[in-house]
Write a structure and sequence with these properties.
The protein has about 150 residues and is α+β, with helices and mostly antiparallel strands. It is about 35% helix and about 25% strand. The protein has a single domain, classed as Nucleotide cyclase, GGDEF domain (Alpha-Beta Plaits). The protein has four helices and six strands. A four-stranded mixed sheet has the order 1-4-6-5. Strands 2-3 form a two-stranded antiparallel sheet. Strand 5 and strand 6 (about 125-130) form a beta hairpin. Helix 1 (about 20-45) crosses helix 3. The two termini are about 20 Å apart. The model is unreliable at about 145-150 (pLDDT under 50).
Length: about 150
């Protein structure tokens, strides 16, 4: 995966709103990095931006580790496509698939970017860029603190 983070929403505990939580967390990540990057750019002259890719679907979760420390990872087509979304995203953007939009519809606004061929898939997929969280304020109030609880 390189210099990246993979976060699972809905594992190990399933959440009905896992896609909304993921979109909300991605928006908060972008906001936080943007604020941090302003200071770094002023003091060091270095630009910092992140890209986020989201996909929703079934995954195979397997444990990794030893008797002293147990962790798990997810594998499969869903994680593959999420990684591809991140790779296709421009800096400071969030790309999602139609599978994620279907589950988060009404909570995020998106800009369609059109179909794109993705390495490892036989058919093009529709790319969507998240542009705003339409109900983030209400969502945060009704879900025990919002992104902090989105694990």
């Amino acid at each position: 995966m390189g210099d990246g983070i993979m976060a699972l929403f809905g594992a190990p505990l399933a959440h009905e709103d896992h896609a909304v939580r993921a979109c909300y967390a991605a928006l908060r990540m972008q906001e936080s990095v943007k604020r941090y990057a302003e200071g770094v750019r002023r003091s060091e002259g270095i630009p910092i931006q992140i890209r986020v890719g989201l996909n929703s679907g079934e995954v195979v979760v397997r444990s990794i580790g030893s008797d002293l420390k147990m962790d798990y990872t997810a594998v499969g087509q869903t994680t593959h496509l999420a990684a591809r979304m991140e790779q296709l995203a421009t800096p400071a953007s969030i790309l999602i698939t139609t599978d994620t939009l279907r589950l988060a519809e009404g909570y995020v606004a998106v800009k369609p970017l059109g179909p794109v061929n993705v390495k490892g898939l036989s058919e093009p997929i529709e790319l969507l860029s998240v542009i705003i969280c339409a109900a983030c304020a209400n969502y945060q109030k009704t879900h025990r603190g919002g992104a902090e609880d989105a694990e």
